[in-house]
Write a structure and sequence with these properties.
The protein has 302 residues and is an all-alpha fold. It has one domain. Helix content is 77%, strand content 0%.
């Protein structure tokens, strides 16, 4: 039997594995099939319907008004605001800048968790976070799949940083509720709020001519959409609070570094990038960083 802590590691690894695969699928959809507005709203609506539907078959949990307010903040930080800022930022800066900036998320989580949750910062944890960040940045710089001709801009980079910062806020503030409530209970409220939050900024574009599909959709389009809506949104977002319930936010955020590994591996498999021993070494460095963080816990850590 796996310990609760081991289950937490497995859950957050799976979530980031799904996100890593989603990078290539969503990139294809946004480049050739769907508008960003429809892509974003469809994810929010589909997950909202799925989570509320599943909740009908589970024991009902009552939240206080204050807790619903916290979930509104979590929704804004972890879903709606995070995605909106990332999309806006990516449209103004280069993919490589965006990838490098997002590797700072575990560093922000570590600082916020120390201030808000009193999570201890140990030398081993600091070493692990920065080791993982170094490996992720190196992997991004080595990967031809993240290359691009988009010019960098201060506004775009600030949006990407803002996206990373509020995602870190989500990790920290969701911890107490993740321990108290089922993942489905949290997610049904978060995605309901997310629909309300993104609807005003996406609906005008969707209602305009050509606001949904860029080309005539095929079965591949719908298959890719199914993965994004069910896998990368419903399933992955359900796994995150289940993992944060069992492990510390800083540890959970370290698994963000799995995403560039998966994206790079997919690019090699699909012939969009080439394998090199340097990339393998960078991936190993990332896992060393994750290992150091997991070993830095005090005796009381779960």
């Amino acid at each position: 039997m796996l310990s609760e802590r081991a289950k937490g590691h497995l859950l957050i690894f799976t979530a980031n594995l799904i996100f890593g695969i989603n990078y290539a699928i969503s990139k294809w959809l946004l480049a050739e099939q769907l508008t960003p507005e429809f892509h974003t709203l469809a994810r929010m609506v589909a997950a909202c319907i799925l989570f509320w539907g599943v909740s009908l078959f589970l024991p009902q949990e009552k939240l206080t008004l204050k807790e619903i307010g916290v979930l509104f903040l979590c929704s804004l930080c972890g879903v709606a605001g995070n995605q909106a800022l990332f999309i806006w930022g990516l449209s103004m800066t280069s993919p490589i800048d965006a990838s490098v900036i997002t590797t700072g998320t575990p560093i922000i989580v570590m600082i916020l968790a120390a201030v808000i949750l009193r999570e201890p910062i140990t030398r081993l944890k600091v070493a692990g976070v920065f080791t993982g960040a170094f490996g992720a940045v190196w992997l991004v710089l080595l990967s031809g799949a993240v290359g691009g001709n988009a010019a960098s801009s201060l506004a775009g980079n600030l949006c990407i940083f803002g996206s990373s910062f509020i995602y870190a806020v989500y990790f920290v503030f969701s911890k107490p509720l993740s321990v108290k409530y089922q993942a489905v209970t949290m997610m049904k409220w978060m995605f309901l709020f997310a629909v309300i939050e993104v609807l005003p900024i996406t609906l005008p574009g969707i209602l305009s001519p050509g606001g949904i599909f860029l080309t005539v959709p095929t079965w591949k389009t719908f298959a890719a959409m199914a993965y994004v809506l069910v896998g990368a949104t419903f399933l992955a977002y359900m796994l995150i609070p289940m993992a944060v319930k069992r492990i510390r936010p800083t540890t959970a955020s370290m698994y963000n570094y799995v995403q560039p590994i998966v994206a790079c591996a997919l690019a090699v498999i699909l012939g969009q990038d080439a394998f090199s021993w340097e990339k393998l070494l960078a991936a190993i460095i990332i896992f060393v960083g994750v290992y150091l963080v997991t070993k830095s816990r005090p005796k009381a850590e779960t």
